[in-house]
Structures are given as structure tokens and as C-alpha cells.
Amino acid sequence: MKEPGLDERHRDKDGEISRKHGNTLVRNLRKIYGPSFAGNFAETDKLSGVLHKDPAHTSLTQLRKDHAAGTLEAKIKQHS
Asked: pTM of the predicted model, to two decimals?
């Protein structure tokens, strides 16, 4: 059974994002979501590390929404 996360997400959602986009660098995601995205992480860190180390980080909210809407992959390709 899946356990709900702190914000009522299920934990497997971040695992799915990590599998699909885990190699994406924070630097590229800051081009999409702004300079404060994953502010505690280096620009050379990968998304998979951010999701693993700080899954409740508030700057990831829009990224999760984009993933759920199916637009994350296109945004990453556009800004990479």
C-alpha cells in the first residue's frame, strides 16, 4: 500500500519523476522555475538528488504540477 506524503502526495510520485527526469541538472531547472529553485543545492546537483534529500522542498511544487500535467519533459527539452 502506498503511504501518503506530508502534502498528501503519494511517495511514488517523486520516484516516477526521478526515473524520468532524475539526470536533469538543477541549473537547467532554474532556467524554468527561477533562481530560487532548490536553493539549498548546487547548480550541478541532479534532480534525483534533490528529490531524495529534500522531498518536501516547496520550490518543487510547480515541477510536480508540470509533471502531473505532462508538460515537464517539454519544458526541460526547451531549456536544456
From this structure: 0.73
